Amino acid sequence: MPRMQGRIHLVRHAEGLHNLRNDPKIPNAPLSERGFDFAEELGHRFIGEYSNCVGAIISSPLRRTIQTSLTAFRRILDSTQYAKNSGSGVNNGVTLALDANLQEITDLPCNTGSTVDDLTIEFPGLKSEIQKLHKDWHIKAGPRSPLPQPLTQRRDEILDRLQKIQADLQNKKMSDDIIVVTHQGVIALLAPTANIPVGQWQTFHLVRKNGLLFLE
């Protein structure tokens, strides 16, 4: 059973406002104020354990996952992805990639993303990545939805992308660990036995069994 070199760190976003208030009606729920603190703590713990080993960070385009990524991994991400003169990010750091397949599964208001234009206004440092998203990326079902159906296909597309990213990092002789910032529903899809609370992570390897990719 071939095990891929490099690790996949599955991160569940920090506490969202909808978690704090138990209110799924909050549109594209952001982090709570406490959630930002939790994300900073997550970043300190992660760096303490995995310093200088991350070659890529990929996130769901929902607001709380982007906020978690930018807050937790400011010592890994490139400074151009932050507001000018913010003091965040590092020179020649990692670029935060966005993947609509990593957005939460359900179409509750808290799990439904913003338009490409609104995201660009809110996160101008990520404009180039946001512009790569399909204009209907946040539509979960129906003929307008660009998301792969069924969910097993969505899982396979995520794992295929992670394999390609790792292969590219290895070809370039770069650090080949990947951080994936996502949601409970997607974590259950990728690693059904995982139990990752908000603001925490678990580390996996990509393995291939009978021609299919899995995390274990």
TrEMBL record:
SMART domains documented for this protein: PGAM
Pfam families in alphabetical order: His_Phos_1
CDD domains the UniProt entry points to: HP_PGM_like
Superkingdom, taxonomy of origin: Eukaryota
A Gene Ontology cellular-component term: cytoplasm
Cross-referenced InterPro entries: His_Pase_superF_clade-1, His_PPase_superfam, PGM_Phosphatase
GO terms for MF: phosphatase activity
Name by which UniProt lists this protein: DNA, SC111
Annotated source species: Aspergillus oryzae (strain ATCC 42149 / RIB 40)
